[in-house]
Specification:
Length: about 230
């Protein structure tokens, strides 16, 4: 796999919002008006009355149409990152796009089609369990980038996390002083993730919710706030 891979996922139109005469549809989804996107495995191009519009053809590593499952995206793009991470290589998978474009749908998924995050969590634990000759410390943090500021969603305060950038060799770029949770069991991380999701939906701070959940879920011994990174 290339070091960086860029994929585009087409979302089915929401009839009331997107399917107006000005929104081009895509091939296979039925043309709306005179324009449509033609898509194949690695490219998209805009057609007007079936003729390509100059300057509107774009090539990507992968292009997925609306019928793709999260599991297929995971298998093609993310599984190798997880295997690499277990072997000691850094890896990142992120969804980027305008509001309502399907980032949450892709990352979280649903019960019927779990998204990238639950699939990755399971894979991390399964892969680590297979490596019987090594010990793993699995830790999670949770933060958001909002208006170009980084918020640690595990903390109760509203302190912004500082960002460090340096061109020096071996410099530690990124942010620091965020909380990490050490997790030993896959089911605990799944519980943690459910709580994260609940917090996002309810707009509650995660640590407050986790504290409430520790007793009922008996998580106190398995998940603890282990370290404040400096
Ligand atoms: N591939 C898809 N198939 C079916 N429905 C989808 C798909 N992608 C997104 N949706 C639906 O479109 C709506 C918006 O998607 P989603 O919430 O994932 O967008 P988002 O990019 O996370 O938006 P925001 O940036 O506002 O949080 C949701 O109702 C979601 O279920």
């Amino acid at each position: 796999m290339e070091k960086i891979s860029v994929a585009v996922r087409f979302r089915p139109p929401k009839s009331s919002v997107d399917a107006d005469a000005d929104s081009p549809s895509f091939s296979g989804g039925g043309a709306v008006g005179n324009r449509e996107w033609r898509i194949d495995d690695s490219g998209i191009s805009l057609l007007h009355r079936a003729v390509p519009v100059p300057g509107t053809s774009f090539v990507f590593d992968h292009v997925f149409n609306e019928s793709v499952t999260n599991a297929r995206i995971y298998g093609l793009l993310v599984r190798s990152l997880i295997r690499g991470a277990v072997d000691g290589f850094n890896g990142t998978a992120f969804a980027y796009g305008q509001t309502s474009s399907g980032k949450t749908f892709t990352m979280n998924g649903s019960g019927a089609d779990p998204g990238i995050i639950p699939l990755a969590v399971r894979d991390i634990f399964d892969t680590a369990a297979e490596a019987a000759d090594r010990e793993f410390l699995i830790r999670v943090s949770y933060m958001e980038i909002y208006n170009e500021e980084i918020n640690d969603l595990l903390t109760l305060g509203s302190e912004k996390l500082p960002i460090h950038e340096s061109l020096e060799v071996n410099a530690r770029n990124g942010c620091s002083n965020f909380l990490l949770l050490a997790v030993t069991l896959c089911k605990d991380l799944c519980c943690f993730y459910s709580v994260v999701y609940m917090c996002r939906v309810c707009g509650k701070k995660l640590l407050t919710m986790l504290n409430k959940c520790y007793n009922s879920l008996s998580l106190e011994k398995q998940i603890d706030i282990s370290e404040k990174q400096t």
